[in-house]
Automatic annotation (TrEMBL):
Belongs to the HNH nuclease family. Transmembrane segments: none annotated. Residues 54-111 form the HNH nuclease domain. This is Putative HNH nuclease YajD. It comes from Staphylococcus arlettae. Keywords: Hydrolase, Nuclease. Pfam families: HNH.
Length: 123
């Protein structure tokens, strides 16, 4: 009797554990290239700064390492967490380290968050 590798359903695709791992690596590389280490060095420097790392740690501690969006739905989730800027950096650079502008979310909730289009400054 041979072992059948379990399949994982992701959206409308079914894949093996290895295929899922490879997809996550590709997505991570693409994200890092475009967002973390992209052309805009101002943001890259910020996310690599000790100020951000310290603030990020404080936000995670404040939120008890739980996704706050999942908690609103009564779900306790402490997997794949990130600290999210409620008002994006591009919209308000001054609030980048404001505790009231930072929230702990899981990757799934972060991907669901709808960012409002930026207002163009009136001239």
């Amino acid at each position: 009797m041979s072992f059948i590798e379990p399949k994982i359903r992701l959206g409308n695709k079914t894949m093996t554990q290895d295929q899922l791992l490879e997809q996550r690596k590709r997505n991570s590389k693409r994200y890092n290239a475009s967002v973390r280490y992209g052309k805009d060095s101002k943001y890259t420097e910020f996310y690599q700064s000790s100020q951000w790392r310290s603030k990020r740690k404080r936000v995670l501690l404040r939120d008890k390492y739980l996704c706050q969006e999942c908690l609103k739905q009564g779900i306790v989730n402490d997997k794949r967490l990130m600290v999210h800027h409620i008002v994006e950096l591009k919209d308000d650079w001054k609030r980048r380290l404001d505790m009231d502008n930072l929230i702990t979310v899981c990757t799934a909730c972060h991907n669901r968050i709808d960012h409002k289009p930026r207002r163009r400054p009136e001239v």
